[in-house]
Amino acid sequence: MTSTQAAAIALQDHAVLWRMGEVRASDVVNAACDALVAGLDSPGLRILAACTRAEADYDVHDLLPAALDELGLTFAPVGSEAGQEAAARALARRMLAGELTPREFTFRIHQRHGHELPLTERLAELDDEYDILEYGDGTVDQVDAEVTAEARRLAAHAAGSAEPTDSPS
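Given the sequence above, the corresponding structure tokens read:
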């Protein structure tokens, strides 16, 4: 994966995580700055990256959709299945990066989607397994390993979905 692909995925992840309240608007602005440094460029991305922390809370809402659109990136509606799946993939990448423990990851997935989202059904089941470990034969390490495998599956599935289009600067 090129650095521009990684930056595009990170920007999309920050967008979806911001919409679901997981990260601050200023984190989206930082991701926009990182995307510029990595080689992504569009007028909207430059404007977004230029926001101050004070402006971010007010301006990201209006600037982000246009910036993503100019780059050919997806900004799925929060309540849509595509938006829910994008959020799950973004959380999976956060877990794999060490920003969440496997237990925190499954808890957040289970809390947000229950057993209703087919893509994350196994993670909801694994969250249930954490809750009943003391009554069974399994160990935390076994469940953690299975959660990590599921997170890798989710993250790998998304790796090809955030391909920026070549847009004029």
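The chain has eight helices and no strands. Try to locate this feature in the token string yourself.
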